[in-house]
Amino acid sequence: MKAGSRQRGFTYLSLLLIIAAMGFGMAAFGQLASQQAMREKEAELLFIGDAYRQAIAQYYQSGPGGHKRYPETLEQLLKDERFSFHRRHLRKLYRDPVTGGNFEVVKAPEGGIMGVFSASGAPPVKSANFPPEYASFEAAQRLNEWQFLYVPPT
Predict the structure, then answer these.
(1) pLDDT tens across 39-95, in order?
(2) Averaged pLDDT, 21-37
(3) Nearest CA to 93 among 38, 44, 48?
(4) How many of the other CB atoms lie within 10 Å of CB of 143?
(5) Which of 55, 87, 107, 109 stands the most exposed, by the fewest C-beta atoms within 10 Å?
């Protein structure tokens, strides 16, 4: 065998190893980018879920004549017709940033909607450093366990 043919085999093997290393690097980068995208979706879910919780609280607390009740539909947060003027508790109905669909609702025992949650069964990336009102999220195994509820003080 000539020395030139050995040289070509070594160059070919080196090229294959470089391509394999680049593939592993790109796969690792893709996983990091995917995880970062999920972190951003979770941050948006926390923001939107809290907006729903606050809107439900405003609706509940602002009942005319002290009559407090939960909204029957999420649309009532957009246009509260219990008053002579239309009051808005939420600017628009937000989509679930994780699934892209609608939020699921949590029904109150006495009727109406007391909260919302994502339909996603994916495990959360975030598992600590939640605001105090969402401390229970630290034990959640799936995103659909993050329930944004308004429970009136007793």
Answers:
(1) 999 999 999 999 999 999 999 998 877 789 999 999 999 998 888 887 899 999 999
(2) 78
(3) 48
(4) 24
(5) 109
Q: Give residue limits of the domains in the chain.
A: 39-149
> What distance in Å separates the CA atoms of residue 91 and residue 6, rounded to the nearest whole number?
71
Spatial contact of 121 and 143, defined as CB atoms under 8 Å apart: yes
Would you list the DSSP string of 30-73?
A: HHHHHHHHHHHHHHHHHHHHHHHHHHHHHHHHT-GGG-----SS
DSSP 137: G
Q: How far apart are CA 45 and CA 41, in angstroms?
A: 6
The answer to whether 82 and 70 have CB atoms below 8 angstroms apart is: no
Query: Under a CB-based contact definition with an 8 Å cutoff, are residues 130 and 138 in contact?
Result: yes
Chain segment 92-123, per-residue pLDDT in tens: 999 999 999 999 999 999 999 999 999 999 99
Retrieve residue 62's tokens: 């602002």
pTM exceeds cut of 0.70: yes
- Residues 10 and 65: their CA atoms lie apart, in Å, by 86
